Amino acid sequence: MKDKITQIKSFLQTLSSNQQVANDLDYYTFLATLLPVPGFQQAALLVNKLLGNHNLNLLITDLQESIYSTNTRITLIEDEVEKVQQMARTVSAVSVLEEKIDLIIEEAKKELPSEFIVETNNWSTQAVINQIINADYTAISANNNSHNHFENVEITSRSTHLRATNHSSNFLRGTDFKDATGAVSMNGITQQGNIHVTSNSIGFGDGGTLIFGNPNEVNGNCPNCNTDIVVDKNHLQNYSSIKCPECKGIFPYRIT
Which InterPro entries does the record cross-reference, listed alphabetically (predicted)? Predict the structure, then answer.
């Protein structure tokens, strides 16, 4: 959750034209974590879109004021993650606030886009896990040493375009591409180049490649209990240590 909060807030900051969001990034980050869409970019963009709906904007502003008046200590919290988490705890403790959120989410569902697009660029990673996606068209793109990780995802679209260029990749595990006529499944496959997927076919475009397995996986033995630890090296970005799942020891690592 910490990574998701940080990623959403960072992306919201790029929407500099929306002064309402810029005035309270932490609140709108909190709101984005509640929306029924996978991917931090999609959640942030949907928040921005919802504010363009006058009636929804009124509901969102009312919730904002109600949270702050219910828990005045929130405004004193400096840490962005703790502040967002405190908003969530405040809402969960007050049924009236929960009802306000339920109403916003129901209205937000009417604004869901008919296109689902994931774009990951410039040494970034993005994960979509345990999600169901319904859209007329889906596009998943990674560029410039970036990587997308899809796991246990069901995509219902008339067509899906997968694109990974310049040392980038899309890794798909337990991912199904469906429509009313059938399904194509990918499990433990890394995609590069351009590929077009429908429910009954896979079309290879420029540089289109499917690689069985995840070439970004690395492994090593825990120095304490000798457990073999396997991890996607892209998930290690910005970390200097790793935790053993068996003995719970925390150790520095080095990839050679």
Answer: Pectin_lyase_fold/virulence (IPR011050)
